[in-house]
Automatic annotation (TrEMBL), chains A, B:
GO terms for molecular function: 5-(carboxyamino)imidazole ribonucleotide synthase activity; ATP binding; metal ion binding; phosphoribosylaminoimidazole carboxylase activity. Keywords: ATP-binding, Ligase, Nucleotide-binding, Purine biosynthesis. ATP binds at residues 107, 147, 152-158, 182-185, 190, 213, 266-267. It is an enzyme of class 6 (ligase). Pathway: Purine metabolism; IMP biosynthesis via de novo pathway; 5-amino-1-(5-phospho-D-ribosyl)imidazole-4-carboxylate from 5-amino-1-(5-phospho-D-ribosyl)imidazole (N5-CAIR route): step 1/2. Residues 111-296 form the ATP-grasp domain. GO terms for biological process: 'de novo' IMP biosynthetic process. It comes from Phaeobacter gallaeciensis. This is N5-carboxyaminoimidazole ribonucleotide synthase. Catalyzes the ATP-dependent conversion of 5-aminoimidazole ribonucleotide (AIR) and HCO(3)(-) to N5-carboxyaminoimidazole ribonucleotide (N5-CAIR). Belongs to the PurK/PurT family. GO terms for cellular component: cytosol. Homodimer. Its EC number is 6.3.4.18.
Length: 358, 358
């Protein structure tokens, strides 16, 4: 499928969280319907979707029926079981493609892929066992961070190693999951590029945002980021290199460490990304619509920013600030319709639009 | 109900067209669900709603079940049958209230209401029959325009009278419907104010837009409008006067003629308005969210504009321009998901964002 899909077509989305929700809204702006596939009941994306299938990823009949009902399939998260993808791709194209998922589902594969492209990453080593961990620590040095190769997000599945004594308990905390050791990168700040690529190979990037994390979760993204003109150019070229190497279709988030020795790739996410939420109030075409445009073979937006924005995540109890935030000038609320404000749970975000002084 | 509704509550929307669709999306941004009531099958709003009821306005059981499933009721069009409102309001509050509907459903009542407030309108006369029409034409003069008192929109239910000879055929064309004769206003251009009022009486207005019509249908809205500072102030004060007089809750569109003798009210619409679509890409809180905020008793956005915008409607065959528009820089597409591009049918709109020169 490289012909553009026409308005009225249906986009299947794997995952019904806030990213699926905002993808669904973006699809509606282009006249498309969406069908959400999500194991959990009452998914946030279901409030704004044409259809919802509630079924586990092991339900092959449900997967096949879902695939048959849509024109193209995309996803909001990278940890989709391989067997489910095998079923789905028999029926409809999956965008972004399998290669992007294969690479980004495994931290070790991802790091090796980036290194092969000539991009800087944190020093890393495969950690099959304690012997390997000791050897890697001796080479990389502490502090370092031990991570599961798969299924980590928002700081989960990670253990810091400050001294050699932390090594054994850190490995034990991962309960035998395949792991990778990553050395610390001495960075001044973090940035990310939200990049998109169309089936025809067209690439467009939004301006890099500067990210601040709290407790391992993104707290704010500020656009523009503190980057020199050449760093900006580097960031875009690096993102384009990654997308082209994967023959990628869709939006990708590329997280970067800004260091005195250049930009270091932290990780890549083959989907719309929290650090791209600012685009909803800063660009005519936001990252969600950009992803949909790529997936349906439409022309990409050029990523042009009309306003500066500071995005702030609303996590857990932050919901008590909503009445106050609703009164704030130039503050755009984006709530996800989740029932329970559990600690660490992303409940929404705000985009503060910085108006140009005229 | 004056306590704010909490995220997770459900907003009932009467009418499933593009306005209901965009209201539903705005509700989702604040964490609300929506339930659409619409007689027609496959309504555009249904693609982005939590629930849809397909039933005629005469189905009292369906109306009652719909009302019982929601926390508050609003609407996207003013011509809701009175009997349906009688059923609905037994269950849940309807916002904006009945008085706004009573006044705006009838051109004669509306004109008299505006005149009573001391606002300028076109000269007008009640036209029960040919005798009244002849007398009114003698007083108001030709050219004039004969309109049905109820159920007119986008230039429908209207007949121009250029000379006295047009009078009889014009009256015949309305097929006995109660009518009003309106004199022509000598205006330089048209503007509109999108105003909002909360249950507590807070009023907020967006900057006036300048409207250009083609074939009786809105073609473009440009913001800012060509208005002097005092005209801008007048426009806002007039809108506030109207909203306060109706004890109004929600967003209203107030259409104005700009004349050398001041601003003349053309008509009012007790709902979000086509001439307010620019706010989607010009403000942190757009007219759809503003309406939802009023309806659920949340604080209103202040109407601040961060960018200048030119909105253009896509009517009928304009859909063939979509691929080209999708390539245009700073152009935000908003398509309504309608299947057939019939002549005169509103298929979508674009907002061209005018970036500030830095």
């Amino acid at each position: 499928m490289t012909d553009p899909l026409q308005p009225g077509a249906t986009i299947g989305i794997l995952g019904g969280g806030q990213l699926g929700r905002m993808l669904s809204v973006a699809a509606s702006r282009l006249g498309f319907k969406t069908h959400i596939f999500e194991p959990g009941a009452n998914p946030p994306a279901g409030d704004v979707a044409h259809m919802v299938t509630t079924a586990p990823y092991e339900d092959e009949a449900a997967l096949a029926a879902f695939a048959a009902s849509v024109d193209v399939i995309t996803y909001e998260f990278e940890n989709i079981p391989t067997a489910a993808l095998d079923v789905l791709e028999q029926h409809r194209p999956i965008r972004p493609g399998r290669e992007a998922l294969r690479v980004s589902q495994d931290r070790l594969t991802e790091k090796a892929f980036l290194q092969d492209l000539g991009l800087q990453t944190a020093p890393f080593a495969d950690i099959p066992d304690q012997v390997a961990l000791d050897a890697a620590l001796a080479e990389i040095g502490a502090p370092a961070i031990l991570k599961t190769r798969r299924f980590g997000y928002d700081g989960k599945g990670q253990a810091r190693i400050m001294t050699a004594e932390d090594a054994a308990p850190a490995l034990a905390s991962l309960a035998g999951a395949p792991a990778i050791l990553e050395g610390f990168v001495n960075f001044t700040h973090e940035a990310s590029v939200i990049a998109a690529r169309s089936p025809s190979g067209e690439v467009a990037c939004f301006d890099p945002g500067e990210n601040v994390h709290r407790d391992g979760i993104l707290h704010t993204t500020t656009v523009p980021a503190r980057l020199s003109q050449s760093q900006r150019m580097d960031a875009v070229l690096m993102a384009a290199k990654i997308l082209n190497a994967l023959d990628y279709v869709g939006v990708m988030g590329v997280e970067l460490f800004v260091t005195p020795k250049g930009l270091v790739v932290n990780e890549i996410a083959p989907r719309v990304h929290n650090s791209g939420h600012w685009t909803q109030n800063g660009c005519a075409v936001d990252q969600f619509e950009q992803h949909i445009r790529a997936v349906v073979s439409w022309p990409l937006g050029d990523g042009q920013r009309h306003s500066d924005v500071v995005m702030e995540n609303l996590i857990g109890d932050d919901v008590i600030r909503i009445p106050e935030l609703a009164r704030e000038r130039d503050c755009a609320l984006h709530l996800y319709g989740k029932a329970d404000a559990k600690p660490g749970r992303k409940m929404g975000h705000i985009n503060r639009v910085i108006r140009a002084q005229k």
